[in-house]
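Hey,

Quick one before I head out. I ran the complex with zinc ion overnight. Inputs first:
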Amino acid sequence: MKLVCPNCEKLELVEPYTHKTTINVKNEPIQVELKLYRCLECGQLIQDPKNPQDELDIAYRIYRQRHHLLQPEEIIAIRKTYDLSQKDLSNLTGIGIATINRYENGSLQNEAHDTILSLLKNPEAVKELLDKNKDKFSEEKIASITKKIYELYKKDSLKNIELIFERYNDKELTGNRPFSLKRLISLISLIANKLKEKNIELTKTKLNKLLFYIDFLSFKQNNCSITGAVYAHLPYGPCLESFDTVISSLVEENILGVKEVIYQDKSYEVLEPLKEPQTDIFNPDELSLIESTIEKLSFLSAKELSEISHKEKAYTATKNGELIEYSFAKYLQGVEDV
Ligand SMILES: [Zn+2]
């Protein structure tokens, strides 16, 4: 084929040419491959007019993927989920409107901003921010955003869980398994039923820790998680991403019940199974891992479980709010210690 060569200043025969280069993004070298053409006459590299490539843009995309940052189109998608303008998003998050505009157009976001923007995937976080920043919005706007949040909650509460987890397609975060809602529900239901058999109260903290250990132990042993769910470092330990949303959805769908228990003048919530678990979704090896982990950990108090999970490298080596890569599973010690 022929393209206009800027060097020869006329149409010349060109050949496809992969140009490899290294771009430093925040002091990190990123290898970039550009699909270009080369002038057969003078060797000049020429952009494909139909598919011009920006090396910085490509480098940023690779960098974001490596560091689990949102891509520009994901930021736009999150904003549009709630029908927010860039100005609304700025009012909600405190990030300047010009900055949001730059991020949506491909500038590299800083990590603090990325954390805030990622939080907005969860309608609960949007609701909290809206409550805090009510004075910055008109009443109509508050009503319309609230309606969107409500729709997201109600539309299909189980679909909501899928939406949360399907956004993560990074194998390091899902433990080499695409997220499976069926498996997560079956696992939670199995845990709830097993603990009921044993007459052990299932608090939310306990459920959270059991899920973390089961998924990570499965990855440690079989290089694959059980549910494909994502876990984050929260102040009270490793935690299933959007745990509260998951639990309230399961309560709404009558898969779990919540019972209030009063002990020494303090009340706390206990989860109860309302359905039989669907165990045929797990293979025998998985089932035995799940059952033995429950066996080993369910007798510990929520406090003891928290203490153990706080010592895991998956927790000590990650920062608050950060998602936890499954590769930390090889350092798990909690279960062997028990
Ligand atoms: Zn040329």
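Residues 204-222 form the longest helix (19 residues).

Talk tomorrow,
K.
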